[in-house]
Amino acid sequence: MCSILNVIEKLKLNVLNIEDVPDSFSSAVYKLTLMSGENVYVKIPFNKDKLIREFQVLETLKDVIPVPKVLDIWHGDESTTGALLLSAIQGVPCTKDIDEKLSFQIGMYHAMLHEVKAPGYGYHGLNGFKLLDQNNWRLHIKNNFENWKEPCKELLDPELYERCILHFDGVFSALPDPDGPCFVHMDFRPGNILVNSDKVTGIIDFESARGGSSEIDFTKMNRYIWEVNPKTKSPYIEGYRTIRPILNLDIVLPFYNFYDAFSAVVWCKNRGVEKNQSFLQESIIVLQKSVGYELL
């Protein structure tokens, strides 16, 4: 609470009520009701790079897809990374049943995001837009996996770990050519898609967005929407194709489902295994299924 009070003071806000926003896994998010009766959101990112990244991406996308408007930004001090003051969007996260009409809209807006060209393969940060090594998406993916091996080895069953290492090369080499650099969300899931009645009203949480290949952005759609209700996949693809072609998901999804779960194991290790135990176990189950290995 100390940080949000500091931010309120720095942004010179007259606040009637402060409310925590649940399920903000990386940054702290608060819903504020101002004295005027207006609702706004304050986001205090995990670090300053995420602050700049979200600001830059929201500014880029504000006339492209429905995203929160940046009302103000505070660049922080010694005790706080900084904060964004964001407009409220009428709607709620689409965490309940998603029908085919809604899925079509989600696909359309996702494609609109992917149509926005990025300066290269890389991301916004404190020192401007940083290109990936050799501006090479495939090299970036491979280097990430190499860097994740050691922390994953500490948490995974030895046989499962070895199968993961062998599995990577086969599925990685089968990937189609990247289709970027375009902007990718990196956490495109129901909790970040706002709906009101039967319409998509907003896409939120761009702190991890970057210039990449669209192939990385379908994983959570598949895990949290299509696998829950397979009937939503076809209308999503239909909506997406009204804007741009879609990559071969039969090749893309198995690789990134595996890659994302391997990455999540490292995330849990870095952020605390005990408090992220359920997410860790969910990720391990995905890895087991990906490589055809079940622990006895």
What is the fold's blueprint, element by element?
Layout: H1 2-10, E1 15-20, E2 28-34, E3 39-44, H2 48-61, E4 70-74, E5 83-87, E6 92-93, H3 100-114, E7 122-125, E8 128-131, H4 137-155, H5 158-173, E9 182-184, E10 193-196, E11 199-203, E12 210-212, H6 219-226, H7 233-241, H8 249-271, H9 277-291
Antiparallel strand pairs: 1-2, 2-3, 3-5, 4-5, 6-10, 7-8, 9-12, 10-11
Task: Please describe the structure with a list of short key phrases separated by commas or semicolons.
3-stranded antiparallel sheet; alpha+beta; Phosphorylase Kinase, domain 1; 296 residues; 2 domains; 5-stranded antiparallel sheet
Can you walk through the features of this model?
The chain is α+β, with helices and mostly antiparallel strands and 296 residues long. It folds into two domains: 86 residues, Phosphorylase Kinase, domain 1, CATH 3.30.200; 199 residues, Aminoglycoside 3'-phosphotransferase, Chain: A, domain 2 (Alpha-Beta Complex), CATH 3.90.1200.10. The chain has nine helices and twelve strands. A five-stranded antiparallel β-sheet has the order 1-2-3-5-4, with helices on both faces. A three-stranded antiparallel β-sheet has the order 6-10-11, with helices on one face. It is globular and about 60 Å long. The mean pLDDT is 94.
